[in-house]
Queue: 4 jobs
Job 1
Amino acid sequence: MAERAVSLDGRQADALAAAAVAVRAHAYAPASHFHVGAAVLAADGRVFVGCNVENASYGLSICAERAAVCAAVAAGVRELRAVAVATGLDEPARPCGACRQVLAEFGRDLHVLLVGNDGKRRETNLAQLLPEPFTFADIPDSAEN
Ligand code: THU
């Protein structure tokens, strides 16, 4: 399997980071008070955003990254190029394991921008964060095989 990180030009990276920072303002996090914003860049150039949405039944909370992926898929997207994740931390946070697996479904070569306090940025890629995801190719009878 190819593990090539798709490059992102500076302008796209800035726009994606800004979208993640902006949507973070809408995070609903009364339990953790940890506000997260995410923005995904689709292969066709469109950007979709999501924020974390917590619930009084804690286990039902959804992360910002997965909310952004769902928005993109609902708009017809099947391939993602990049994701930006914004938190208010001095050291930008990385996506949780569940979100890494969901992101891998739509972007094996995904570029990952981690945005912290004051716009402080770190760049990585999904192949590094999740080297061996479970995929439909692992299911013998799936439609992908
Ligand atoms: N959270 C995200 O939105 N993304 C992550 O990758 C990690 C965690 C949210 C879930 C929960 O609402 C809060 O952060 C604390 O875990």
Note: The chain has four helices and five strands.
Job 2
Amino acid sequence: MTNYLLLLCTLSALTLTAQQTHTAFTPADEVWTDTDGNHINAHGGGILLDGDTYYWFGEHKVAGSGGNKAMVGVGVYSSTDLYNWKNEGIALKMLEDTSSMLQVGSVVERPKVIYNDSSGKYVMWFHHELKGQGYKAALVGTATADRVTGPYTYHTSVRINPGVHPRNLPHWRLRALGVLLDQAEEEKLGHKELGEIGAFSLRDHERGQMSRDMTLFKDDDGTAYHITSSEENQTLLVSRLSDDYLTLTDEYYRVLPGERNEAPAIFKQDGRYYMISSGLTGWAPNPARSAVADSLFGPWTDLGNPVRGSEEETETTFHSQSTYILPVAGQPDAFIFLADRWKPKNPIDGAYIWLPLEFEEGKPVLRWRDRWDLGVFAGGVGE
Ligand code: DGJ
């Protein structure tokens, strides 16, 4: 009997181990488990390769309709194969201190971490909204750590570039803009048109520009950039970070004005920059967009919807929204598109849609796969 029990225990332990080892990405599965068998909780995420280990940072959501509020912080997971993720805990903790901007119950979204080679610091940037203020504050927050998994020390949350004009909407154009704004008032222009002409840039000039959905991009030469949905989400702003990555420089540009892009995700291939983003429909999915540029500051050329598939897939981006594009280490031209399938009624249930990026006629292309592995890149996914 004792031997029988022992055998049973060994068998169930073996089954458990087998269950926890993943050998593929499974976008068809709504629940992705970590190495402990728990649903991975890292939404709106970004990934940093540090040595030979990938670190996945993301929003830690909680159950219930209030679960999009940051009650816990930014979670981090590690992996050496991209399939099996170990929970490394909470990298940036929300603070109990009610006088802090980072207090429990504020909104922390789309955290991204890059490593600064000179300072040796890991630098996290995230979209931050203040507690009880909805999405009005439109701030970007920063935090740093000496170890990749943290703990991250919170620095501050700010509007961006106060008192500084975008390089492509310089001071001398303000007079003309003033005229346009008078006209806009007469013609009662909508948000999109106001976005196109730069009205919100002018409105927020003193206080600083809004920053909502955001990402970071660290270029080959170590220069890093902040790309964010600004001006009432009508226009993206691309700013160069300071050398220590802790602040933005004055060098920033308005990109795709009035095009209403959210969820920007960037990658670089053959010296050109590509962006996949979404439209503006809150938590509901919409058709993705793609664009290419020779400089992150633009001009960006529209490449259309990257999704190939059924009407439902192209209209909803497989019921998901972009968050990051990961270059696979050691495999040139291998990029993974990371997206979130939001579940606003119970945000903790949000699912992860990871797909290989393919290229067709110079355009990034996404196709649904129930299950796939890194072997797809060996065969080449497109030109
Ligand atoms: C869509 C954004 O991409 C998300 O990160 C989040 O801000 C929601 N909107 C809020 O409605």
Note: Residues 7-18 have pLDDT under 50 and may be disordered.
Job 3
Amino acid sequence: MNIQYNISLRPFNTFGMDVHARKMVTIEHEAELLTWLNESSVHDETLFILGGGSNILFTRDIEDTVLHNKIAGVEVVNEEEDHIYIKAGAGVNWHSLVMHCVERGWAGMENLALIPGNVGASPMQNIGAYGVELKDVFHELEAIHLHQKEKVVFQLKDCELGYRESVFKNKYKGQFIITSVTYKLNKKPVYQTGYGAIQQELERMGVKDLSIAAIAQAVMQIRRSKLPDPSQIGNAGSFFKNPEIEKYQYIQLQALFPQIVGYVLAQDKVKLAAGWLIEQCGWKGFRKGDAGCHEKQALVLVNHAHAQGAEIIALSQEIIASVKEKFGVRLEREVNVY
Ligand code: EPU
């Protein structure tokens, strides 16, 4: 365990916001966490849990104690004829886990390559990309209740995983710290290449024998070509969710905007591509000071160098207002704001 005071969080958030934490406690083992939580002095402290810092926009300094979760470790915990169960510490880097599994031929996560952040955030956000969501490979997770200081095991149904949503962002917000996640992977791969760009990229790469390694490579190429690398330009991936509207509204919009991009879902709902809506409002590549809208993917807001959280929020509000005015659709943030 490591305790630091008055520390800049700039290296710990991919948006690169230079806010300070009054106190940051870094834990690397579950036992260490329990010991610390049981110290009497901690009872009065309110905690802010920080993982990979890849889906958070800081707008101010943090008075709460920042608990930096760096619990490590990856192990096989069970094996069946067709499946293998991998348990990973919440502090393990997500992409390194994906590559660890791809290299061993354990299938299921390859479409989720290169998503920034750590294992602990994967169920929190129900991360997803290129036709696969975390819930497709999730088995269970362990979390510690911060007040009761007891370990709780959550099965898939307990997590209420939705589109970039879970109980940990909603009814249990701030109550649990996820310590490990167990994934159920396939020994015999089921390739997911239906998402448009993957097939094209595999063809461009000249792949003849499809493999999970090839899919991971294709996904990495696509992501690198569209999404800004946080080590170069601060960002937290998609800033907004793709909004869901009723099918009749979609038909009305289609009449006005024949190029509109939408995916028909069950129950007469349609998911619109927010990036398209934002681009049509003229924001793609926009920059004001150091706050901007990415030039290759309008859904991603960026910090070119020294933008403040408030400037990013102000830009996001202008974008929300213009999309509402042009299309009558309300965008919601996907990124967590502190
Ligand atoms: N589009 C535009 N202009 C833009 C951006 C997108 O017209 O500036 C259009 C594209 O041409 C395409 C459609 O919108 O027809 C969808 O774009 P894309 O495939 O890039 O995906 P997305 O819907 O914008 C979502 C996820 C991403 C994930 C990709 C790929 C959300 C909020 N975002 O983006 O996830 O990588 O699909 O599966 O669901 C993240 O959550 O941080 C994230 C990056």
Note: The mean pLDDT is 95.
Job 4
Amino acid sequence: MYPLTRLRRLRQSKELRQLVRETSLSPSDFIAPLFVVHGEGIRQEICSMPGQYRLSVDNLVLECAELARLGVSGVMLFGIPEHKDATGSEAYDDHGGIVQQAIRAIKAALPELIVVADICMCEYTDHGHCGIIHGHEVANDETLEYLSRQAVSFARAGADMVAPSDMMDGRILNMRRALDEAGFSQMPIMSYAAKFASAFYGPFRDAADSAPSFGDRRAYQMDPANGREALREIEADIDEGADIVMVKPALPYLDVIKEASLRYDLPIAAYQVSGEYAMIKAAAANGWIDGDRIILESLLSIKRAGAKIIMTYFAAEAARLLHQG
Ligand code: PBG
């Protein structure tokens, strides 16, 4: 008790603060989400996400080379297909699929960069929902087959990891079996286990042109009010064979990250989503906040809460800041 205890003693100098610092960030904690489009020479900025681009495969490989040079562990690919249809057929097209092409090109140029492929139907369906529609409902069990086909197709293209983001029940078990049967028993699954029905995904849906054409995603993504249910989702995915579980969005759900990291001993990932990125960028552009410091503080807080892996659009920027010290 004060005056015996003085917590300021260890804050006196930069060196002491460094010595007792509990959490540190490294570029290797980061995975950069990237958007890939058909075509050549395309580098089209996303309005609501300044500094993020829709990239054709040639430019995507250049971006990946820079991320690898900065020490970022990997990239997470989102594809924008040539055409969308009711069953999202480009999602599992081995040759025509844009993500499949991107995976092959990145792995050929940069074999050591981890390529994670997001698994979901919403970018590929003409209705923008995350599965197969019957009436106005996403048909859970039928959707599983499509998701698993997509996972196997990305595995065949050479992905290092698949990351289902659809929130159907039973997708991990279905996908694990499909991957094993196709000879990919070593393919890790990073599950978007606790994915909330969040308004923070707004800019992403502009970027991927994936906003649902009717209704919303509340019948499959989680209610933001439910922290305990998030733990049930995580546990279900662990039981079904997930290797890594993710919480998404990140900053508004640090309580869920924390609880998951205390309860479960597999790696926890968190996704700092498009809206989190856009808010920081917009305020920084207005001079209302110190963008560089807030980028690092937000990422550090996500890590302190218990996430080992962070999906972040700031991956390159944060890595550069960390290298500058
Ligand atoms: C696909 C998917 C989404 C995001 C990641 N995967 C969109 C959504 O669920 O609407 C959002 C990522 C972000 O906002 O950065 N289902």
Note: The chain has one domain: 12-324.
